[in-house]
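REVIEWER CHECKLIST
Item 1: Sequence provided? yes
Item 2: Single chain? yes
Item 3: Sequence as submitted:
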Amino acid sequence: MEKVIALAPDSWMPGGQPDPLILSKHGQIGASVPRVDGPLKVRGAAPFAAEFALDGMVYAALKFSTVPKGRIASLETTQAEAAPGVVAVMTHRNAPRMAPMPMFMTAEKAGGSDELPIMQDDRIYWNGQPVAVVVAETQEQADYAVSLIRATYESDAAITSFATAKRKGTEPALFMGQPLKVEKGSADAAFKASAAKVDETYTTPRHNHNAIEPHAATVTWDGDRLIVHDASQAVSHTAWSLGQVFGIAEDQVRVTSPFVGGGFGGKCLWQHQVLGAAASKLAGRPVRIALSREGVYRLIGGRTLTEQRVALGADPDGRFNAIIHTGAVAMSNHSVMPEPFILPTMSSYGSPNIKLDVQVARLDMLANTFMRAPGESVGTFALESAIDELAVALGMDPVELRILNQPDEDPLKGTPFSSRHIAEAWRAGAERFGWSKRNPTAASVRDGEWLVGTGCATATYPYHRMPGGAARITLTRDGAAKVEVAAHEMGMGTATAHTQVVAERLGLTRDQVSFAYGDSLMPGVVLAGGSQQTASIGASVIAAHHVLIAELLKLAGNDSPLAGLGADEVGTVNGGLAKLDDPSRHESYVSILTRSGRDHVAVEGSASAPLETQHWSMHSFGALFCEVGVNSVTGEVRVRRFLGSYDCGRILNPKTAASQFRGGIIMGLGLALMEETQLDDRNGRVMNPSFGDYHVPVHLDVPAIDVIWTDIPDPRAPMGARGIGEIGITGVGAAVANAVFNATGKRVRDLPVTLDKLL
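Item 4: Structure as written out by the authors:
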């Protein structure tokens, strides 16, 4: 089927006819519009998951296991049950009967992080698994009571060391149902015959999610209906999955998530929402369950560690003739999420010989999950560091080496690129950064006791558009429009950008448009992940827009200037419909609805299947430039300035886009210099579950960050826009490490780049 789709005529594909908004000149798209949710957040009036106040609400606290595998031998809860304010203590002995969560990617709406029984028996599967829930009248009472619970365990033999797991054998990794193993040509033989070679191993540690708002949910039952106010980037998936867990229909579950407080792949369905709902059922009262920061580390998975080999072979002129990117990752026994670090290597550079492979070593640990740019963020560290090493070996400028090896078509699939302007991004970024002034000789530039160096790297992230998108448009007699999509606002400016898009598409002002989201009762199965939400919403609104035009033409009837026109002959402009080649044949929405005696018209449309991703190779790109100072006495690394030059199609809102790019870069600085989850190999316990020990960038760690972009629309994407939420973090680790090498002459191949590796 993929071959048929790849060979089909362009006109048969979504995007075969470019979105008219690409050429729109009305000024809504591309305007730096402040966030529509800004005033709410400034006033403290934006309702987050742990801020819904329900009558009779009680508060939950969790007791976590301290062994990685085994069973609960004893669980003494008497003191906790007698503690002040305690309403109930839930364990496997009295929890409601529940089915396991349907694990993500096992069904269209499955959203579970694992498929383990949740408090249904005495089994322990990871160190930190919840073994008891206390609900009390106040959070302080619940926290105190949970400290009174005493548990003992019978431990089973567990594998908690990556080295031990590898010795027991690895297995091929699967990502979204596809094997992470690809071969083209004869990479091993071509590498051996290459004139210039690099063959190194790069490692990255575990990373934990640390969103500003810790995971939380406010849960209540209304008879047999379950209502969950969640911090979620997957409201529809969560509603369906919770229905499966509790044996009720999907329409008996409502999940809302008006504000998320940061997601990055971690705010999907975990055990705490299920436990909160079960505790609410047991206690007969609404429950608020808000994880502490330590609770997030115990219960919410993050990015797993990787061990990557990159071997590059090139001719003397720098052209790649072999790219090998292989290695292993750690993964739990109850997870479907390896870290697919080969993804950026699949499309970044051309070579006649490519070999890619990810192997999985299984451990008894918390299920790992998606984390901003899964695969790309750490895969680019290895790939782009190796390219820098090859540039040094060849005596070439690393920017020119990267431009030289740009492919004309998808290196593995052979499909054409929908739009690729990375070379333009490299040239513009190099000029803006002042790359020509760089001294290529390592450890040759000093500023007092600081060694100064610059480095670069490529960023890349694929365009995604997941199936299941749908939208509802409601036009009212006063000329206002409301769009509803079961989408999410995690801080990226979704509501703002799509208010602009909808206003442009319907020919209205922004003040006439409202964009509603974050409720599973709304149409669509739109996950906020994979940098695909903008495209999915855009395609859904396009589909609903087509239905709306047809419905308005019916209502207009024969007494309208539009009489006799078909849907393909009219457009939505100036608050109404008009003939495309004769704007004088126009009637406003207000007039159409008034004449037809209607207060409003509401339509729904479903987006087509995302076949464009199989017909064209579609990716966002970036060229990253970094300057660091490394203290020659202490080894301290300070990033002095950073520039990202991006090719992501059309930029819908420069203000929110720049924020997304900068936020991704800052997260990348954490990946490069400080973030590392420390796991005790003896017992699988996270040893630094707090900001006191797990370090993330703060204001003093963040330099001046400059961002620019090509703003060249992708003709195959809705609005001409590709995703920007995740590309910001990709390549940053390598850009920093490459700059550190240029400053010091020391190559760090093991993240994070800490001072002990430079002294």
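Item 5: Key structural point noted by reviewer: The radius of gyration is 27 Å.
Item 6: Recommendation: ____
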